[in-house]
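Hi P.,

Sorry for the delay on this. The queue was packed all week, but I finally got your sequence through. Input first:
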Amino acid sequence: QVQLVESGGGLVQTGGSLRLSCAASGNIFSINAMGWYRQAPGKQRELVATITTGGTIVYADSVKGRFTISRDSAKNTVYLQMDSLKPEDTAVYYCNADHIATMTSIGYDYWGQGTQVTVSS
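Then the structure:
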């Protein structure tokens, strides 16, 4: 069974940095795209950044120049380096992985449990 486990959230002051990690497990053969989404209280979940196996990266306009997504395909892990954090970055951050092939099946749209990021002003 495929699982995504996030780590690295926490409380930081404005201008600070955090690094999120998400590791996928479950006899995985390949993963197409991995990424991060976030959901603030009272708001819809939104894209933060995604990265494909081929290295194509997409960022939300609100995080361009401040966040960096990277991936270690050998470890089935995706990272999100968040710098120059702002109070408006406060949200629960969710890891997402799409089109995962295991030794026995192919599945789509997996989500982690979420990790809280709080930026104080």
